């Protein structure tokens, strides 16, 4: 699914004070892209992801997905759009504390047409892939931050969303597990899913095909990986950050 952002502005109001989180963002995300969003803390990365995921509302501008203005949908249609198209990995995981890991991961499939056995098979497959198969009977409060993050990733990818939105998905992970997740994202993206990922890490961003840099709510640079190897792309990203 391709996404076009047209003059997106997001202003938060705190009493009399207006905070411009995003200002006139124009961005085209082709179907099958893998885009990393980088920028300093407070530059608007999470806001951008939340707007695309329709969990926050634009102040002005349009978000066009497959030729449809999704910002104009009714609340019920927005929920339906999210359910049918979007997988979201939140910065603070958003696992449900009263459900164990297995139940959390299977949540997006509960309303699907899959049989119980198919659902358990899918949960087992993805949990194994991400290395948390031994934790599926534990509750979120019994596992570490990195394990929670991996459970949240499993939940987001289990129903093969057309668009995967990931906010710092490797922030709580060690290098080995971050690499497992990024390899999984590359595989998912190779199957045609569009991925948008927020990260502070140029190493993580170097897995993407394109990197968008935000500064004070505006895009200040965009880099494409094209046929560069990951190390060269990493160095290019580093030069933008250090500039
Ligand atoms: N709900 C809100 N109410 C008021 N201001 C907000 C709200 N959400 C975000 N902001 C402000 O909007 C700006 C952009 O925030 P955002 O969370 O998008 O930045 P970010 O680049 O994701 O930061 P970080 O890397 O620290 O997560 C910041 O100045 C932030 O304080």
Automatic annotation (TrEMBL):
> What are the GO MF terms of this UniProt record?
ATP binding; ATP hydrolysis activity; transmembrane transporter activity
Q: Can you list the GO cellular component terms from the UniProt entry?
A: membrane protein complex
Residues annotated as domain ABC transporter: 3-241
Q: Which PROSITE patterns match?
A: ABC_TRANSPORTER_1, ABC_TRANSPORTER_2
Q: Which InterPro entries match?
A: AAA+_ATPase (IPR003593), ABC_transporter-like_ATP-bd (IPR003439), ABC_transporter-like_CS (IPR017871), MacB-like_ATP-bd (IPR017911), P-loop_NTPase (IPR027417)
Q: Which CDD domains match?
A: ABC_MJ0796_LolCDE_FtsE
| Gene3D superfamilies assigned | P-loop containing nucleotide triphosphate hydrolases
Keywords from the named record: ATP-binding, Nucleotide-binding, Transport
Offer one Pfam family short name for this entry: ABC_tran
Similarity field: Belongs to the ABC transporter superfamily.
Q: What is this protein called?
A: ABC transporter ATP-binding protein
Species for this entry: Petrotoga mexicana DSM 14811
Q: What is the lineage of its organism?
A: Bacteria, Thermotogati, Thermotogota, Thermotogae, Petrotogales
